[in-house]
């Protein structure tokens, strides 16, 4: 039995007693359950007739039926999905009729509980409520969390390969760095190199967080920041990750354009030591998420840089870039073996030296197991 078939069976067992029907559109949840891959996302929405029904429909006892508009089935390459019944909606067919026909075979109760993925479109829910006006909706994603939070050895191995691709891309990028590049030049090179390594592409928008006396930290204004020329002295902070077989990597390192100042060397050393403290604290069965955050954060607080560590220590990661639980104050989840987190301390200063590091770490009884370990020293661009 395939991994996906096993996951489907386990999900259907969890569904029993919680929902009578589940609707899972093409998204992370369906990729995890049935191996139906996601594609590179679009900035704008691409609409197909009847697109609201696109996805898998299943019950605790009935195998999934994958409903697809013709354009998704043919042009999107989803019509050849193996081991799953596919129903294709013609361009001029009525999607409501097709969904009613699928649901009729499920023999639902009068007031069904319907589990819907968190990534479903509101349009799908509006149409589904018209078809099932007495339905009660629950989150299918929350039910799936029971399966997704702790990763299998196979998932960890796949994520390790995603990390290898990510580090290999970074190694190539470092060879290209030089004074006078724009931030966009660097970002475009990162994205290109990840694809050269065999990745479908970035798991999130590749970002740089750069600061220096003549290069103020600028966040959330990409069309402004991308144009800026990198001339020393400036701290260049990378944040990116490669996708691989449905899993998402997240990685960060710091580069100094120009000979680093004493403070640049210091802040880089501090964030690396803070990360090591967080990794050591990631002890399965012996620590909560907020305790891991505290172990790494306190190190920077004691060094006088606590105010510049502006975000949580890390987040769960796997099929999505950000998954619960989170390494942050207030998250009392006990860390379990096989959970994967980012550990990503940083020091962000508006115009002073900044630094960040980020790796994916697997929780183990004796502390965290990093999946990437390269580039521990501050890299300096000198020309």
Structure description:
This protein is α+β, with helices and mostly antiparallel strands and 383 residues long. It has two domains: 3-148, Creatine Amidinohydrolase, Chain A, domain 1 (3-Layer(aba) Sandwich); 153-381, Creatinase/methionine aminopeptidase superfamily (Creatine Amidinohydrolase, Alpha-Beta Complex). Helix content is 34%, strand content 18%. It contains eleven helices and 19 strands. The protein has helices spanning 3-15, 28-34, 70-74, 95-106, 122-131, 140-148, 153-176, 183-196, 222-225, 262-281, 289-302, and strands at residues 21-24, 55-58, 65-69, 85-89, 113-116, 136-139, 207-211, 234-239, 243-244, 247-248, 254-257, 314-316, 323-327, 340-343, 346-347, 355-356, 359-362, 369-370, 379-381. The strands form six sheets. A six-stranded mixed beta sheet has the order 4-3-2-1-5-6. A four-stranded mixed beta sheet has the order 7-8-11-19, with no helix packed on it. Strand 15 (346-347) and strand 16 (355-356) form a beta hairpin. Helix 1 (3-15) packs across helix 6, helix 7 crosses helix 8 and helix 10 packs antiparallel against helix 11. The chain is globular. The termini are far apart.
């Amino acid at each position: 039995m395939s991994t996906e078939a096993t996951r489907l069976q386990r999900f259907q067992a969890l569904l029993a007693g919680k929902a009578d029907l589940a609707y899972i559109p093409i998204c992370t949840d369906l990729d995890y359950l049935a191996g139906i891959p996601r594609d590179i996302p679009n900035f704008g929405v691409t609409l197909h007739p009847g697109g609201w029904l696109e996805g898998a429909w299943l019950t605790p006892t009935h195998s999934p039926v994958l409903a697809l508009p013709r354009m998704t089935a043919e042009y999107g390459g989803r019509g050849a999905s193996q081991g799953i019944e596919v129903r294709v909606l013609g361009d001029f067919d009525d999607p409501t009729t097709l969904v009613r026909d699928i649901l009729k075979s499920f023999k639902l109760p009068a007031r069904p509980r319907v589990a819907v993925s968190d990534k479903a479109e509101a349009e799908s829910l509006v149409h589904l409520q018209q078809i099932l006006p007495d339905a009660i909706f629950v989150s299918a994603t929350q039910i799936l969390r029971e399966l997704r939070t702790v990763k299998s050895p196979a998932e960890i191995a796949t994520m390790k390969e995603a990390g290898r691709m990510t580090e290999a891309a970074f190694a190539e990028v470092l060879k290209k760095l030089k004074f006078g590049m724009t931030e966009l030049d660097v970002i475009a090179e990162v994205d290109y190199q990840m694809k050269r390594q065999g990745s479908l592409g970035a798991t999130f928008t590749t970002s740089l967080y750069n600061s220096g006396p003549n290069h103020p930290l600028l966040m959330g204004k990409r069309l402004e920041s991308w144009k800026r020329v990198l001339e020393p002295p400036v701290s260049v902070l990378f944040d990116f990750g490669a996708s691989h077989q449905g899993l998402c990597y997240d990685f960060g390192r710091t580069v100094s354009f120009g000979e680093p100042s004493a403070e640049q060397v210091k802040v880089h050393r501090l964030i690396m030591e803070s990360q090591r403290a967080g990794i050591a604290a990631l002890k399965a069965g012996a620590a909560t998420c907020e305790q891991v955050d505290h172990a790494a954060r306190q190190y920077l607080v004691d060094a006088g840089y606590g105010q510049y560590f502006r975000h949580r220590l890390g987040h769960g990661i796997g099929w999505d870039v950000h998954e619960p639980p989170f390494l942050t104050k207030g998250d009392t989840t006990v860390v379990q073996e096989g959970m994967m987190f980012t550990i990503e301390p940083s020091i962000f200063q508006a115009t002073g030296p900044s630094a960040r590091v980020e790796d994916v770490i697997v929780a183990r009884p004796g502390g965290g197991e990093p999946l990437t370990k390269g580039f521990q020293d501050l890299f300096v661009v000198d020309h």
